[in-house]
Design brief:
mainly alpha; globular; 5% strand; two-stranded parallel sheet
């Protein structure tokens, strides 16, 4: 049910994160982003985001970054409400989670990453 995200709400209350925005990634990835991919940092990171409701870990890194930047370019309250609604539906349906492999996203190794 994604209860592991509850402590992240503290970061939202502190103003370090938003409910909706690109998911924060490992700091070691910062040097690997292309200029376009780095645009995901133009908004606060979020607990849920457009990439999470559009495929989560089934997406390649390239697809995820494209969706993150699309979110930055199309930011609106209506989009945030849509993302929150889709997130709640996916959590209830337990959709997009690979229970056999909780860490199903491989490490990002830079632009052109095969997965």
């Amino acid at each position: 049910m994604s209860f592991d995200e509850l402590p992240t709400l503290w970061n939202v209350l502190r103003g370090d994160m938003s409910l909706v925005g690109p998911r924060p990634l490992l700091m070691q990835y910062l040097a690997l982003y292309s200029e376009q991919q780095a645009r995901r940092h133009e908004v606060l990171p979020g607990i849920t985001g457009w990439a999470q409701v559009s495929g989560r870990n089934a997406l390649t890194w390239e697809e995820r970054f494209v969706l993150d930047v699309w979110y930055v370019d199309n930011l609106s309250l209506a989009l945030d409400v849509k993302i929150i609604t889709r997130t709640v539906a996916k959590v209830i349906a337990r959709e997009g989670v690979d229970f056999a492999d909780p860490e199903s996203m491989p490490f990002f190794s830079g632009t052109g990453d095969p997965r």
